[in-house]
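Narrative of activities, Objective 1.

The group set out to show that a structural description can be obtained from nothing but a protein's sequence at a throughput compatible with the screening campaign. Below is one input-output pair from the validation batch, recorded exactly as produced.
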Amino acid sequence: MTLEHALEGKEYIIQSINTDDEELNAFLFSLGCYAGEPITVVSRLKGGCVVSIKDGRYNIDNQLAAAIQI
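Output recorded for this entry:
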């Protein structure tokens, strides 16, 4: 399942991130978004969602959410 289909308020564990963009992978890693880490969808927005990773909250678009396997 991808993060795009995750339920709000439920904690999931990231299984993998499927993107061919190395720069994007490095950016996500710097946020703490990598395999094995917990992630929670805090709320849904038009075109994306707000997620909680470690101690931060980030707004990600649907395209990126679809690349994150949980």
